[in-house]
Amino acid sequence: MNTNFKLLEIEFDYNGQHQVITPVLLQDEHERILVDCGYPGFIPHLEKALGRYGIGLESITQIIATHHDMDHIGSMAELKRKFPHIHIITHELEKPYLEGKRKSLRLEQAESSLEEIPPEAKPYAEQFIRFLQSIETAEVDRTVSGGDTLPWCGGIEIVHTPGHMPGHISLYLPAGKTLIAADAVVIEDAKLAIANPQYTLDLEEAVRSVRRLLEYDIEQLVCYHGGLFQGDVRQSLHELLRTYPIDGTSAQV
């Protein structure tokens, strides 16, 4: 079977800061699967990134949403509107948030922080809240849970990696010993790190999810923030775990 993955590195400015995100394209003979899709209005960015490989956005057949943060699902509703044939897949815990049946956990977090921040920071926080409120919802076509395997690209194993959000998932492709981490880990200064630990909804659970990654034989690790990790994956995961205590003890593995 011809399996492949391509990194869709997207560079852009957001609130005056230069940022890079890395959605992933998975493909085989029959399917083209987009893993996460950027902020609202990112269709032109996705088209440009796919165009570097000679691929049109209209050929996408599935979108896997790893979780409902704005930079991962912001363009999902627009993509579904423009290309109704695309199926949206997410963890069962994420479905009500993607469909707008429950308030975004990130929005709840931002709203609850309003009383704690200094007055000079409130205008930015209120602007951020309005932005979160503007994220469009989209119907989910299929839900998955940890341990499920999607039947494409030689099998895509769903790895439930909660912490950053309760329904956060990573994807493991045994055919290429590749793990798509989403925000389970990020790359900072050439090392693996917890994504925005101050905003992670459950830090201890996030650290346990990092430990769970050690159960997999990973030769290639892709982070949404940082791209393809260059280095010894297992060693770097061990180093990360040593920096975070769990239940008051050192996170030795």
TrEMBL record:
Transmembrane segments: none annotated. SMART domains: Lactamase_B. Pfam families: Lactamase_B. It comes from the Bacteria. It catalyses: 3',5'-cyclic UMP + H2O = UMP + H(+); 3',5'-cyclic CMP + H2O = CMP + H(+). Residues 20-225 form the Metallo-beta-lactamase domain. Counteracts the endogenous Pycsar antiviral defense system. Phosphodiesterase that enables metal-dependent hydrolysis of host cyclic nucleotide Pycsar defense signals such as cCMP and cUMP. This is MBL fold metallo-hydrolase. It comes from Paenibacillus oceani.
